[in-house]
Amino acid sequence: MIQQAIGIDVGGSAIKAALVDLAGGIRGLIRVPTPSSAPEVAEQCGSIARSLLSAEARAVGVGSAGLVDRAGGVHIWGPHVPGPARISEVVGEATGLPVILDNDSNAAAFAELTAGAVRGTSDAVVIMLGTGIGGGLIVDGSIYRGRGFAGEIGHMVLDPSGPTCECGLRGCWETLVSGSVLDSAAARLAADHPGGAVARLAGGQPPQGEHLLLAAEEGDAESLAEWEKAGEWLGQGIARLTAILDPEVVVVGGAPSVAGDLLLDPARATLVAAGYGSHLNRHPEVVASRFGGESAVIGAGLQALESLDD
Questions:
Q1: Of 90, 83, 94, 165, nearest to 131 (Cα)?
Q2: What residue ranges of the chain are covered by domains with CATH 3.30.420.40?
Q3: How far is 138 from 5, CA to CA, in rounded Å?
Q4: How confident is the model over 128-139, as a mean pLDDT?
Q5: Distances (CA, A) of 131 to 48, 66, 239, 307
Q6: CATH architecture of the domain covering 120-289
Q7: Strand (E) positions, 116-200?
Q8: What are the strands of the beta sheet with 99-103, ordered from one edge?
Q9: What is the pTM assigned to this prediction?
């Protein structure tokens, strides 16, 4: 019998879950909107986990966006996910299985470290682009958590006069490049050009980043410019992280990472231009996640499976 775990990713816009095997494979992927209250978040996680129960499922791993109490199994707070939510307790009662809770970007970093782009790497940064930006830090081959809140890189202020962030600050990195920023750019272009590529590709549905990507791939100049700008802001943040952490590899994950070099090439160019020590070729390799938007689901499941050996 193949050992599997249920992996759950609690994001600002959606909760995703699937059965995860030891190789990082998934099946039965579920996606539902993230509820607006903490008790509903925990109950939704329990309901989803219960629906994925199988004879092979041995444990549940949950990655949640924000500050988590790993030992207590509680999502404490996040700018996009309400708290406190007693996720481990509720999911455990719903499934009868052991539950591991971690920050979602730490879970994503664990997936990359175990079965992804940084396997065998000692020092890396995993950047997750979603509703905001999360970060998983790998130092000396292990996930670095600090006192529990390490990796909240989306709230580095890059532009003090920039847009107001949901955390209350202005010009946080995630207000300049994230899945939400790309969705907003798509909506703006569709409104400004109702006969343009983005509006046409959206087909009457709310324009999103995926439509912006399709339009850019068709050669739409304004869509290409939005991805260029997003990549430049991505590179500015990577340059700052590189100066602090000096990683070997930077992995970019989340749904926007499927744009590949359309997003990453301007980020790499900006990193080289702005990065400390770039004249010595000290900049890290910048790559897309092999797991796309499912990194946290996979990593949460893999963490749960690893916990069975402890």
A1: 165
A2: 4-110+294-307, 120-289
A3: 23
A4: 95
A5: 21, 12, 22, 29
A6: 2-Layer Sandwich (3.30)
A7: 124-129, 133-139, 142-144
A8: 26-33, 14-21, 4-10, 57-64, 99-103
A9: 0.92
**Token pair belonging to 206:** 């709310």
Distance CA 302, CA 110 (A): 8
**Are 110 and 151 contacting, i.e. CB atoms less than 8 angstroms apart?**
no
Per-residue pLDDT tens digits for 137-186: 999 999 999 987 899 999 999 999 999 999 899 999 999 999 999 999 99
- Which one, of 262, 266, 234, lies nearest residue 250 by Cα? 234
| Cβ–Cβ < 8 Å for 170, 160 | yes
Host H or E run for residue 179: helix 179-192
User: How would CATH label the architecture of 4-110+294-307?
Assistant: 2-Layer Sandwich (3.30)
Both structure tokens of 20? 């995860």
Pairing state between β 57-64 and 99-103:
parallel
